[in-house]
Specification:
Strand content of chain B: over 45%
CATH class of chain B: Mainly Beta
CATH class of chain A: Mainly Beta
Number of strands of chain A: 11
Radius of gyration of chain A: 13 Å
Structural class of chain A: mainly beta
Order of helices and strands of chain B: EEEEEEEEEEE
CATH topology of chain A: Immunoglobulin-like
Number of strands of chain B: 11
CATH architecture of chain B: Sandwich
Helix content of chain B: under 10%
Helix content of chain A: under 10%
Number of helices of chain A: 0
Oligomer: heterodimer
Distance between the termini of chain A: 37 Å
Largest sheet of chain A: 7 strands, mixed
Largest sheet of chain B: 6 strands, mixed
Number of domains of chain A: 1
Number of domains of chain B: 1
Number of helices of chain B: 0
Distance between the termini of chain B: 38 Å
Strand content of chain A: over 45%
Shape of chain A: globular
Order of helices and strands of chain A: EEEEEEEEEEE
CATH superfamily of chain B: Immunoglobulins
């Protein structure tokens, strides 16, 4: 079956703009995660959803970052007033339940000029 | 404060030999540990996991060892193959109240030479 997909694969934007990153999880996976990965570092947890609700959003760096999963499937990570420091690869993952291994998408590379 | 540390940024081994990747953690609430492998331009893929009730888990060429008293785990790959060359991440998660939040180390780049 299809794996986790993320769109766009690359996004270049200007400082101050708004961006949306999309994640399509594996069908039937109730848990969905967002991570941010900078060069030379491991994935940094941002938020995870159990169904439609955000079960833990403690990793969101500030209120410019917001994520939704309105129907318990597709999720969108939204970043307002982007800053150069937001440049990174944004990874999405899904799992059957929160205690199972996570299946990652290929990521969206965000570049803020 | 990095709760999961992989102190070796890189490791090079000869094909056929054993690769040992190490990981240390500081949070005693972590009770589930996973290893992921990542190729360039791809997302991490799950390799193997271990629960804190065990001290060893084996899957083919991959074995993970957990030493809870030392807060240390290691991944053994034997025999190593050139296709194993990738970045390996150690990840840890806590009890059921934080089951979905995984904390990752910064990775170790493994190079297996033919």
């Amino acid at each position: 079956g299809a794996g986790v997909s993320q769109t766009p694969s690359n996004k270049v934007t200007e400082k101050g703009k708004y961006v949306e990153l999309r994640c399509d999880p594996i069908s039937g996976h109730t848990a969905l995660y967002w991570y941010r990965q900078s060069l030379g570092q491991g994935p940094e947890f941002l938020i995870y959803f159990q169904g439609t609700g955000a079960a833990d959003d403690s990793g969101l760096p500030n209120d410019r970052f917001f994520a939704v999963r309105p129907e318990g499937s597709v999720s969108t990570l939204k970043i307002q007033r982007t800053e150069r420091g937001d440049s990174a690869v944004y990874l999405c993952a899904s799992s059957l339940t929160p205690r199972n291994e996570q299946f990652f998408g290929p990521g969206t590379r965000l570049t803020v000029l | 404060d990095q709760q999961v540390k992989q102190n070796s940024p890189s490791l090079s081994v000869q094909e056929g030999r054993i690769s040992i990747l190490n990981c240390d953690y500081t949070n005693s609430m972590f009770d589930y540990f996973l290893w992921y492998k990542k190729y360039p331009a791809e997302g991490p893929t799950f390799l193997i996991s271990i629960s804190s009730i065990k001290d060893k888990n084996e899957d083919g060429r991959f074995t993970v060892f957990l030493n809870k008293s030392a807060k240390h785990l290691s991944l053994h790959i034997v025999p190593s193959q050139p296709g194993d060359s990738a970045v390996y991440f150690c990840a840890a998660s806590g009890d059921n109240t934080n089951a979905g939040k995984s904390t990752f180390g910064d990775g170790t780049t493994l190079t297996v030479k033919p």
